[in-house]
Write a structure and sequence with these properties.
Number of helices of chain A: 0
Number of strands of chain B: 11
Largest interface: A-B, 23 and 26 residues
CATH class of chain A: Mainly Beta
Radius of gyration of chain A: 14 Å
Helix content of chain B: under 10%
Radius of gyration of chain B: 13 Å
CATH topology of chain A: Immunoglobulin-like
Number of strands of chain A: 12
Mean pLDDT of chain B: 92
Order of helices and strands of chain B: EEEEEEEEEEE
Structural class of chain B: mainly beta
Oligomer: heterodimer
Number of domains of chain A: 1
Largest sheet of chain A: 6 strands, mixed
Order of helices and strands of chain A: EEEEEEEEEEEE
Shape of chain B: globular
Low-confidence stretches of chain B: none
Structural class of chain A: mainly beta
Strand content of chain A: over 45%
Strand content of chain B: over 45%
CATH architecture of chain A: Sandwich
């Protein structure tokens, strides 16, 4: 079975400070990992994904994520937060074996305070 | 949101009525998905389809039905059997295969009273 945990419902950070949104996963086989962002009353927007290769993945809007196989984690990071980064962030995973769809975490609400 | 349209944006229905939510994509994607989003519960998969004329139940399919007669379209019917239908519904599509990310529509907010 596949699962994703986002341990923090809410993350608060001051504008200009680095931000981290945490994600851990469980899959059989190797993971394909994704991050999405959702603004109020909108659909989800794709930020970045890890499929294979370099553990540090760079994505849209200055975000990046680091795949850590030993810790089964895929934390989202940004060196300097903007107020406009305030949104709901979702981590998702699927296994590279079988044919199951993406499984999403429950989401983490990020608030960037000016 | 580009490439996937959902209509309407807001939908209001009386309890006991069936309602159909529209989802259309022009991305030539093989796979399409329906999710339900409730506050604090993330996204829960209702149904998905990896090819025309075929679909599979997700985690919370009870009270819902779908069809996939065309590659571009994947309508979701919320039936009167769905006990708590008020929610935000999201449609998504992706290229076939595990590596592709999903692209989401703007969502339909359904309120049943």
């Amino acid at each position: 079975a596949q699962s994703v945990a986002q341990p923090e419902d809410q993350v608060n950070v001051a504008e200009g400070n680095p931000l981290t949104v945490k994600c851990t996963y469980s899959v059989s086989g190797n993971p394909y990992l994704f991050w999405y962002v959702q603004y109020p009353n909108r659909g989800l927007q794709f930020l970045l994904k890890y499929i294979t290769g370099d553990n540090l993945v760079k994505g849209s809007y200055g975000f990046e994520a680091e795949f850590n196989k030993s810790q089964t984690s895929f934390h989202l990071k940004k060196p300097s937060a903007l107020v406009s980064d305030s949104a709901l962030y979702f981590c998702a995973v699927r296994s590279n074996s079988g044919n199951t769809p993406l499984v999403f975490g429950k989401g983490t609400r990020l608030s960037v305070i000016a | 949101d580009g490439g996937i349209t959902q209509s309407p944006k807001y939908l209001f229905r009386k309890e006991g009525q069936n309602v159909t939510l529209s989802c259309e994509q022009n991305l030539n994607h093989d796979a399409m998905y329906w999710y339900r989003q409730d506050p604090g519960q993330g996204l829960r998969l209702i149904y998905y389809s990896q090819i025309v004329n075929d679909f599979q139940k997700g985690d919370i399919a009870e009270g819902y039905s779908v069809s996939r007669e065309k590659k571009e379209s994947f309508p979701l019917t919320v039936t009167s059997a769905q006990k708590n239908p008020t929610a935000f519904y999201l449609c998504a599509s992706s290229i076939e295969g595990k590596r592709g990310e999903q692209y989401f529509g703007p969502g339909t907010r359904l309120t049943v009273t």
